[in-house]
Design a protein that fits this description.
The protein is built from seven helices and eight strands.
């Protein structure tokens, strides 16, 4: 993969995420972790190579077919991507609303999820009034609320204290236990060592190590 005419960001990376697996993606800054997540999330097309997602060859998927595929994926971005004009509750509920669910069907689930991530008292707060760590927790809740088939998280514990980070990872582990495939990009070695999972390591755009 490359951006415009620049050098390749990822080279000869080949791997499979088995359904229901839990994987950490590691490597130094600039190794290509975020770029790899963008490819899997369908935010970028590969400049060469093959990506198969949900048994679909993405090179053959038409643009109009991408939204239904993306709705099967939950994503926690480093920059959060919350909608500033919506409350924490409405940001988290957005994937369910887009899927056609009625507020009466999801209100309790969204409220319980926000309580789980420590924001039960901030349901009506809008992102500009929240701290970076609080925004990150809203973003994680939004990514998991629809119980996606695949969850991708880019440094999901980077802006929270260790206790909250452990709580958030327990949430992702529980989601995985119910069948969601999880991939987390992180630098947090303590988190990796405390969570039994496969580790994939990138160096300079190459996958150099895969370890269970």
């Amino acid at each position: 993969m490359r951006y415009a005419a620049g050098p390749e960001v990822l080279r000869d990376v080949s791997f499979t995420l088995e359904p229901g697996s839990f994987t950490f993606l590691t490597g130094p800054s600039g190794a290509g972790k975020s770029s790899l997540l963008k490819l899997v999330f369908l935010a970028q097309r590969p400049s060469r190579g093959l990506i198969t997602l949900f048994d679909r060859d993405l090179a053959r998927v038409k643009r109009a077919e991408l939204p239904p595929l993306r709705r099967r994926i939950g994503v926690v971005f480093q920059e959060f991507r919350l909608l500033d004009h919506l409350s924490a509750f409405d940001n988290v509920a957005l994937p369910l609303r887009l899927a056609g669910s009625h507020p009466a069907e999801y209100r309790r689930d969204v409220e319980e999820l926000l309580s789980w991530v420590g924001l039960g008292a901030r349901l009506h707060a809008k992102p500009p009034t929240l701290s970076g760590g609080e925004q990150q927790r809203v973003a994680i809740a939004r990514a998991v609320v629809a119980k996606p088939d695949l969850l991708l998280a880019d440094e999901p514990t980077g802006n929270v204290d260790p206790d909250m980070g452990e709580r958030l990872i327990r949430l992702l582990v529980e989601l995985n236990r119910f069948g969601t495939t999880v991939m987390i990009a992180t630098h947090d070695r303590a988190l990796i060592e405390a969570t039994p999972a496969r580790e994939m390591r990138l160096i300079d755009g190459r996958l150099i190590e895969m370890r269970s």
